[in-house]
């Protein structure tokens, strides 16, 4: 299986484990991700961007300076003065988990959501494993074939618009 197929398989598994969507910031260096892929509901993505919530999102703040996993429900209200998580819940993203992995020259983070229940420990472990794998598959930026880089950019654009080619 080639790298592109491995990445496609990971993204498909993420759709299955995170039925309300996910957001991946892959290979972040100097505070900008090389690839941003998100499948959250469009109304939430629009509100999040329009209101500039990224800098106030407690899950992002945690993920930038930490590694591992953390359930959204573990963030105290005082850690979320803009009520990012409550606002996400109003769009069906009631339960979630954030993951963060660090590599040699960059790090990647992911937010994963569902509306029916917390993620199980097994699901959480699988999400961290998949995040780690996709981070490593996309980390050697200079070594990736140009056609794979182009495919990732196109996939990033399509998924961020909620045009789900994975369903």
What does this structure look like?
- The chain has six helices and five strands.
- By secondary structure, it is α+β, with helices and mostly antiparallel strands.
- The protein has a five-stranded antiparallel beta sheet, sandwiched between helices.
- α1 (3-17) packs antiparallel against α5 (121-138).
- It is globular.
- The two termini are 21 Å apart.
- Mean pLDDT is 88; it is low at 160-167.
Number of helices: 6
Q: Could you tell me the number of beta strands?
A: 5
Largest sheet: 5 strands, antiparallel
Radius of gyration: 15 Å
Shape: globular
Spatial strand sequence of the major β-sheet: 2-1-5-4-3
Q: In terms of per-residue confidence, which ranges show pLDDT below 50 for 5 or more consecutive residues?
A: 160-167
Work out the strand percent: 15-25%
Q: What is the domain tally?
A: 1
End-to-end Cα distance, whole Å, is: 21 Å
Assembly category? single chain
Structural class: alpha+beta
- Classified by CATH, the class is Alpha Beta
Let me know the CATH homologous superfamily.
Transcription factor LuxR-like, autoinducer-binding domain
Q: Write the CATH fold name.
A: Beta-Lactamase
Helix content: 40-55%
Query: Mean pLDDT across all residues, rounded?
Result: 88
């Amino acid at each position: 299986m080639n790298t592109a197929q491995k990445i496609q398989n990971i993204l498909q598994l993420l759709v299955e484990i995170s039925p309300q969507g996910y957001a991946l910031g892959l290979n972040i260096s100097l505070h900008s991700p090389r690839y941003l892929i998100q499948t959250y509901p469009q109304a939430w993505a629009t509100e999040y961007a329009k209101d500039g919530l990224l800098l106030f999102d407690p899950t992002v703040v945690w993920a930038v300076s930490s590694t591992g996993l953390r359930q959204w429900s573990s963030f105290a209200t005082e850690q979320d003065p803009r009520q990012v998580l409550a606002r996400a819940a109003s769009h069906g993203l009631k339960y979630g988990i954030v993951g963060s992995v660090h590599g040699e020259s960059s790090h990647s983070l992911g937010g994963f959501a569902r509306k029916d229940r917390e993620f199980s420990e097994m699901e959480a472990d699988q999400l961290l494993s998949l995040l780690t794998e996709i981070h490593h598959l996309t980390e050697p930026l200079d070594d990736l074939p140009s056609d794979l880089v182009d495919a990732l950019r196109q996939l990033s654009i399509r998924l961020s618009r909620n045009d789900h080619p994975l369903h």
